[in-house]
Structure formats: C-alpha cells, structure tokens
Amino acid sequence: MASRQERCSHCGRLLVVPREAHDFIKCAVCHGITQIRPTNPLNHTHNIAGRLKGFINTIMNTTTSSVNNSNGTSHFGCYYPPPQSLRPSYHAYGSKRAVLCGILYHGKSYRLKGSVNDVKCMKYFLIKEFRFPSDSILMLTDDKEEKDALRFPTKQNMQMALRWLIEGSESGDSLVFHFSGHGAQEMKMGHEREGFDEAICPVDYEQHGKIVNNEINATIVTPLPRGAKLHAIIDACHSGTLLDLSCVCKMNRQGYYTWEDHRRGRVDKGTRGGLAICISACDNGQISVDTSALSGKEVTGALTYSFIQTVQNEPGLTYGRLLGAMRSTIRGTKAGILILNGPIVSLLNRLLGLQIKQEPQLSSSEMFDMYTTRFIL
Which ranges carry the Peptidase C14 caspase domain (predicted)? Predict the structure, then answer.
C-alpha cells in the first residue's frame, strides 16, 4: 500500500502519514498539528490536486474567489497557505517577480488616499518599462473592489507574500517589493542606535502588530542568493533603514555622497551573495507624504510618483542620478513643502505654518559607485 500524504495546514509542506496515524499528525518542520482526512485514495488524490491548483490560482491572479465565513462575509484570518516551494511551477514567467502592497486604512482617522493609486501605477510601470509579466506581480490592497481575502493586506497575508517573493529565487532573478502605507518606529532594546526599530503597518496592525525591519530582513534579504537582485521601494514614514541593510548612502544637496556602515559590530545581516537595495521615502526621523501636489490631480505618495517619473524620463540613469533627481522633484514642489492630506494635519499647517519635508534615502547590502552603476530592474 502506497504511503499516504497530507499537506501541513500551517506551513503547507507535504507530509507522509504513518499507517498507525488516524486523527492528527505533527509537522517536523513547523511543529503544527494537522487533522488527517478520512482514508479514501481517490478523494485524497483529488483533494491534493484541487488544493494545489487553488494555491497557484490564488497567487497568480487566476481566481478572485474569497474566503467566507458562515455569514457570507470575508474572514481574513482563515486561509490555506501556499505550498513551501512555488518556484518550479513559475519558470514559465521568467526571472522577474514583484509584491506590491497598498493600504488606505478605510474608516480610520489616519486614512490615506493615494496608496492604492501607488501600487496600480507601480504595476503598470513594471510591466511597461521593465517587462515584468503581469502574472508574476502579486498585489495586495484594501481597495473596496478587492474581493479576494488572500489579497487583503493583513499582517499574515503580507508575510506570506514576502515568503512567496523570495521562495526559490536564483541567480539572474529580479525581485521587487513595493509598499505604500503607514510606517512607524517601535521602541526596541537592542542594537538600533536610536533605540527604535522601523516598521510598516499592515491593515490589521492594531490587532496583530507591525512588521519590523528585522523580520523583513530575515524574510527577503538574508535568503537572497548570489546573482539575484532585490529592490524595495518603500513609500512610508520612518522608512530610511526599513530593510535593515548594512550600508546606508548619505548624500548632500550637491550630490556628494558617502557610505555609512550600519553593522556597528553586530552580526552582519547580509545576503547569500545577492544584492539588496532599498529606496525609501525618507530618513528614519522624517515623515513621508500622501499628496496631489506632484501629479496635479490624483493623490499619490511623493516617493512613488517621483520614482516612476524620474525613471521614465531618464532611461539608463544611475542610482546617484535617480536619488538626486527624486529629491529635487520633491524639494521643488511648493518650495520644498508638501502638505499631507487629512483634516488634522491641514489644520496644523494653517495654524502653525507646519513644514513637512522629506528626502528619499538609499541603503544597500553592499557599497557601490552611485554614479557609474546603472539602475535596472
């Protein structure tokens, strides 16, 4: 009799079920407990094939089915995770893959207006300018039109998407992580010089917490293999070192730059030989903006808009030129003053003359010449 197999309901790994097991089995990898379904070889094979097809369809945009609870409403906390290894199935999509997350935070006092616009623009940009296959771009938003619960940017879904982004990557791959939403700083007792960790805020962060830089580094930076390249474009406050990379570029207004070593004696959080580059909206102590001042019409994130505009206007530009041009675009808008959308900040601007400035930052897993290295995805 052939060995039975059951997929772990926690990590998705395929498990071999001992003959003596009747009700539950424990995963040796994640230690999760999975209930064993009744033994019926035909039904069992059909279920595995059906679930695997469902995983692939969900991730690759070929289904819009949502996960519902008994009342027929979306239940975002319950879903089947994808298999541990998705990469072999995706060689047909080439070596480019992207995860784009845009969060508006509907119904909150801190609601944003441009985040979903940002990721829609970024998807179009990646397809048009850098030939990313549409099927290899996973977009998570809280857009009211989004019906698929797996594409709702909860903490768990975002963590799953980041694992999918890096899973099976190899030499020659180009990976992109774009986030547009709220960023924050978390008090941390550890190696951070300021006493803070930088973090991004999923839509459910008030219930389940933020995703901090250490976790992002461990998920998509540390496993990056030699010959692969990761670009993170982070349109959020306090995002200067969000990927916790070893090298931070410090550039003045004249374009002169130096590299700072941010390892500071701690264990190096580098890659497995790949190159990771993070382009952030602002320094850790600065605020980024959600504004219509740049586009003149639609509300967008200042970083996302200036990034796309600069790359489109100057094909073949270097990283140094990219960073400098983005800063000039933002600085030149309204004499360097960008007004955040929202009644509270608008009131502060009127009463106190508040000036909100931001300067995009660049960090990397290794140092390089900013003015000879071409930007390419």
Answer: 96-368
